[in-house]
Design goal:
By secondary structure, the chain is an all-alpha fold. The chain has one domain. About 70% of the residues lie in helices and about 0% in strands. α1 packs antiparallel against α2 and α2 packs antiparallel against α3. About 10% of the residues are buried. InterPro entries: DUF6637 (IPR046577).
């Protein structure tokens, strides 16, 4: 009985994926802000990975009631739009 958690079984795969994506965002941000002229192309990818992270949070909270879970979806959509706009402005 010792070591068992009660209630919902934790999903460690999502936690590991969340940590990996957060690490990717951190590394790309340091590179992009360290030399923005050469690494300008990383900004759309940073916003896209942040969008993916917010979608994971929304999926985790889909069982919650109220408006809090939809705030995550609105933030995710704003990040997706920011990613597309920054990508279009870079590649045109």
């Amino acid at each position: 009985m010792i070591g068992r958690s009660r209630g919902k079984v934790p999903n460690h795969k999502i936690d590991i994926l969340y940590g990996v994506i957060a690490l990717i965002i951190f590394i790309m941000s340091v590179m992009a802000l360290g030399n923005p002229d050469e690494n300008m192309v990383l900004f759309p990818f940073i916003f896209f990975f942040a969008f993916v992270l917010r979608i994971f949070v929304f999926i985790e909270r889909r069982m919650e009631e109220g408006k809090r879970k939809y705030i995550q979806l609105v933030i995710a959509l704003a990040l997706l739009i920011l990613s597309v706009v920054s990508g279009i402005s870079l590649w045109t």
